[in-house]
Amino acid sequence: MLLRRSPTMETVCMQIVLVLLLLIVHRLDGSLSPALQDLNQSQQLPVDLEPEFEGTIQNISSPTGREAILTCSVKNLGRYKVGWLRASDQTVLALQGRVVTHNSRISVVHEDFRTWRLRIRQLRESDRGCYMCQINASPMKKQIGCIDVQVPPDIINEESSADIAVQEGEDATIVCKAVGHPTPRVTWKREDGEYMLLRKPQSRELIRVEAYNGTHLHLPKLERRQMGAYLCIASNDVPPAVSKRVSLSVHFAPSVRPTSQLLGAPLGSDVQLECTVEASPMPVSYWLKGGRVLPNSFAGAANGNYEQPGLSRPEMLLDGPKYGITEDRHGFRTNMRLVVRSFSTADVGTYHCVSTNSLGRADGTMRLYEIKIHPGGVQTTDDQLNIIGGLAEAARGRGNSATSSLHPTRTHHLLPMVLLLIVSLSLGTIRTVISASSDSSSHARTGNR
């Protein structure tokens, strides 16, 4: 009968063998090389590397309404975690891939186990600032990236000028305030595209400039030529640029200048009379016929206030079959036109173009006469009419109806013109007499035959 080995005996034998092996290794430990000892230790104890950032976070510049993304790259992260914070107040926005702030516009994207992206959509001006990518190592490690939120310009109407009106000769300043990021530039231009007229410092001279830069446009001693609409344009390279229109009115009393003060026309023709008016605010203009009105007001003229007693009350002319009345306005200038149709002897006389506004009144006077044309008689030429008109204008003065006397030197210069006119008319008369004498002789010879 065979005897079965007990399990207990086998276990005891194995323990004895292990003890013997440990003793042998202990004896040989001193003889192992240091290189083998290090290899043995490296295989037994894993190395724990510290996390590090790869590169830097690039700053972002973007306009409002767009999105901005900050990128943070980390290597050897291991058991550590990455978080995003707002640098100004240390507010935690996200931890690992989880957003912890109550802002639906913020999200975090984790890519390739190393890249952490903070994304902010629909940027607002309040998002401008710096953000921190942080690793919870010991000591703590961090990187910072900034977002510059650009804001397009906007004009502050409450702090900018509205339309203004100034008396001629006074000073004016128009203002345009704008906000935005970066700070906007403010440029002034004329709306009509013409050059601006600005006064030189410490000078009365006006110079022409295409544009002016600055929030305040100062206009000393305004002239009527500077009247118009000005555009304030604010820009900061973030579209769109914005503009504001400011209308500048320069007020002054009317001045009237007739194109000619003495006009002649044959019966049956149409005659056009014309005056140029400058006034602001816009004047009320009309035509009168007859008399000579004193330069005070039309009301005085209507009540019989004339230079000479006994003159008939002037007649106000209206647009109709007999008279054609038109006006062409260009800024503060107005061209008044009166067409007298089918000129007759009743139309001979004095005509007044009158213009009035809240600052004053002015009128210009023209004399309309008949040119008589007889067969074989003296016919007044255009040159003679021009001479007459020139004499009349020099004597009466161009502009308003106020009477001005001739200066002695001006009268001296007019003498040659008067002599030329007398000689011209005399030659015409002599030709007429000679022609008449020739006709009489011819008739006499015919009768004798």
UniProtKB/TrEMBL annotation:
SMART domains: IG, IGc2
Keyword Disulfide bond: yes
Ranges for domain Ig-like: 51-145, 153-249, 254-369
Record-level GO cellular component terms: neuron projection; plasma membrane
The keyword Repeat belongs to this UniProt entry's keyword annotation: yes
Subcellular localization, as worded in the UniProt entry: Cell membrane
Matching Gene3D superfamilies: Immunoglobulins
Record keywords: Cell membrane, Disulfide bond, Glycoprotein, Immunoglobulin domain, Membrane, Repeat, Signal
PANTHER family: CTX-RELATED TYPE I TRANSMEMBRANE PROTEIN, DPR-INTERACTING PROTEIN GAMMA
Protein's UniProt name: Ig-like domain-containing protein
Native source species: Anopheles arabiensis
